[in-house]
Amino acid sequence: MPKNQPVSGPAAFQPLAAGRRATVQYLLAGIIALGLIGWSLDSLLGTRWILPAGIVLGAVCGYYVAFAHRRTSGADRPATGGKQPDTDKSN
User: Fold this and answer.
1) What pLDDT, in 10s, does the model give residues 41-54?
2) pTM, whole model, 2 decimals?
3) What share of the chain is helix, strand, coil (3-state, %, to 5)?
């Protein structure tokens, strides 16, 4: 198999698959991080409601971060990396 050929399907589906993968990763990271914080606080304070609240808050925050990431890394940036600085110093 050539090295420059994508492994996970046709090139037309690569951006969509990468966006979905990033969304799932952000969701899981938020759920795990705030779930662990909620579990720790539940253990420390002797409550039972902080863990579920942390899981829900982690899912909401993860979805928000995924949405913000997709919004800033989309089509609003030029494909060439933006305007290059002027390197002509003949003035």
Assistant:
1) 999 999 999 999 99
2) 0.64
3) 65, 0, 35
